[in-house]
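hey so u asked for the seq, here:
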Amino acid sequence: MNKNKESYLLAVVALIVGLLGGYLIFSISNAGKAQQQNTAIQPGAGSPTDYTQRIAQAEKVVAQDPKNLNAWISLGNDYFDTEQSQKSINAYGKALEIEPNNPNVLTDQGVMYRKIGWFDKALANFEKANKIDSNHLQSLFNAGIVYAVDLKQPEKAAPFWNKYLTLDSNSPTAIQIKNMLEQPGKAMAPPMK
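ran it, structure tokens below
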């Protein structure tokens, strides 16, 4: 293979991995928020001021009512969205103390574990979420990402992604998964010199 083709292939692979990572963060953030329809803390437009106000409001709520599940989830989501990984992990942890079998919160916390490089904890969360809800697509997708991208073990990603594809075979995420499964060696190969 000549250098131009190799460079092009590497650029395409890098683009796919970047898109998967962005989709992962965006999708998980929105999945956790969808379950909070009855929360007392109303989401804003997403400006820094909105986040600051919502975080301050949620912190007041949990200080007065430490068992307020929706406030902890809202706080975790806002920390998630503002790139405060450790605070997000802690807030999700408080939510999980109240409701330990919430697959969306487990998955969101798992994404934050992944973000700070705690891949074993991320995988444990994704696997627990999938045991709780065997049709939980986001936990299947994310477990595959950690194995394939972070740990460079695409063979361990395959069972998660194949299960995903039995539940959803036509979405944009399913198409991305199919592409990653078809060329795991190329997607994970180090750059050639």
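The two ends are 12 Å apart (CA to CA). DSSP finds ten helices and no strands in the chain.
lmk if thats what u needed
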